[in-house]
Amino acid sequence: MKLYGIPNCGTVKKARVWLDEHGVHYEFYDFKKQGVTETLLSGWLKQVGWQKLLKKTGPTWGQLPDAVKAAIQDDASALALMLEKPNVIKRPVLEHNGKVLATGFATSDYEKIKR
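Predicted structure:
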């Protein structure tokens, strides 16, 4: 299992605590240190779509010009933005064997992985 995100993100911290408390083994992948690839993002976009993977809350999105925000209309435009500014990727992304299990953190989503 892999958990992708940024270590100082509050939502990532919550997910890590939950996984640790429930004995779920995972490898943490830091976007800031390790970067993010087009191949990885394209795979996620095929599975969950740009609307679920793009984080429209937070300072990075808020600081974007309105024209840039309006230009995000599909997977391709979202991909370009996420490659340029990884902070707009909704985090964390929980993945197992290439399959996205969850984006963001919700206890109900994570409970399903234990079954």
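Summary: The chain has a mean pLDDT of 94.
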